[in-house]
């Protein structure tokens, strides 16, 4: 990961972001990187984590808009089946 001059492209969707974050964690946990590469990869992980959180927040806002601002979905229970 020494090519710090090249921009890192962000994944387009939540699943891709999560996959990239999991790969980043796997590489960090592998312990085979030098200090500079580990710090750069950790920074990438933080960026991916923030992107995933933003994607989730966006999805929440869409759901809230579709349900109406004050609507809170009721949890499903077993009692409703019978």
UniProtKB/TrEMBL annotation:
Cellular component GO terms held in the UniProt record: cytosol; exodeoxyribonuclease VII complex
GO biological process: DNA catabolic process
Subcellular location: Cytoplasm
Superkingdom to which the source organism belongs: Bacteria
Enzyme class: hydrolase
Chief location category: cytoplasm
InterPro entries per record: Exonuc_VII_S, Exonuc_VII_ssu_sf
Annotated protein name in UniProt: Exodeoxyribonuclease 7 small subunit
Originating gene: xseB
């Amino acid at each position: 990961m020494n090519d710090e001059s090249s921009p890192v492209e962000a994944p387009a969707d939540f699943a891709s972001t999560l996959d990239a974050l999991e790969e980043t964690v796997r590489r960090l946990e592998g312990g085979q990187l030098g200090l500079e590469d580990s710090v750069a990869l950790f920074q990438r992980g933080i960026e991916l984590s923030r992107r995933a959180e933003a994607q989730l927040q966006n999805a929440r806002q869409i759901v809230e808009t579709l349900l109406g601002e004050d609507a809170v979905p009721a949890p499903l229970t077993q009692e409703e089946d019978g």
